[in-house]
Amino acid sequence: MSLGTSLDMKNDNLEEQFVEIYDELADAIFRHCFFRISDRDKARDMMQDTFMKTWQYLAKGGEIENMKAFLYRTANNLLIDEYRRKKTDSLDNMQENGFDVVGDKEDSIINLAEAKNAIAAMKELDDKSREVITMRFVDDLGPQEIATITGESENVISVRLHRGLKKLKEIIER
């Protein structure tokens, strides 16, 4: 099944189709949430809530044109709600939850320092820039997919990525 297409609501296999989509996207939605909130349990809950809300929407007869975009948009709405209640993120918390720097010890120290700088610098970006950079480089989504998810034009996303990366580079070089 193509994730960019809608589910066939008339099909008796709606549940099977949904399970197939869950199998394909659950890990990606989890990573997206985890990178943004750095709490494994909350990220898992948010991923599950994303799929539950989507299933409830479908069960009420809602139609979804682009499943992948709908799921990411739902996850982003849950993240926004979480940000309203959330404390600051930290690299230490990410490492406690399973993110390990790999390689030899010298490379690990360098990577750790670079990662701390990048995460600290990301916090200085505006929310929209941070969101598109995360979607592009953590979630590995293309500008067209990000545009679909956010409801903005691909050109706006490309410009925001370019400006956000330029600002991030300036912050890191300080």
Summarize the structure.
Helix content is 73%, strand content 0%. With 174 residues, it is mostly helical. The chain is globular and about 60 Å long.
Would you identify the regions where 5 or more consecutive residues have pLDDT less than 50? Answer: 87-91
Query: What general outline do the C-alpha atoms trace?
Result: globular
Structural class: mainly alpha
**Averaged pLDDT, please?**
79
Question: Regarding quaternary structure, how should these chains be classified?
Answer: single chain
Number of strands: 0
Quote the CATH topology of the largest domain.
Answer: Rna Polymerase Sigma Factor, Chain: A
What number of domains?
Answer: 2
Distance between the termini: 47 Å
Order of helices and strands: HHHHHHHH
Number of helices: 8
CATH architecture assignment name of the largest domain: Orthogonal Bundle
Main beta-sheet strand count, sense and barrel state: none
Describe this structure in words.
The protein contains eight helices and no strands. By secondary structure, it is an all-alpha fold. α1 packs antiparallel against α2, α1 runs parallel beside α3 and α7 (143-150) packs across α8 (154-173). The protein has helices at 14-37, 40-59, 67-85, 91-96, 105-123, 127-137, 143-150, 154-173. It has two domains: 1-89, Rna Polymerase Sigma Factor, Chain: A (Orthogonal Bundle), CATH 1.10.1740; 101-174, Arc Repressor Mutant, subunit A (Orthogonal Bundle), CATH 1.10.10.10.
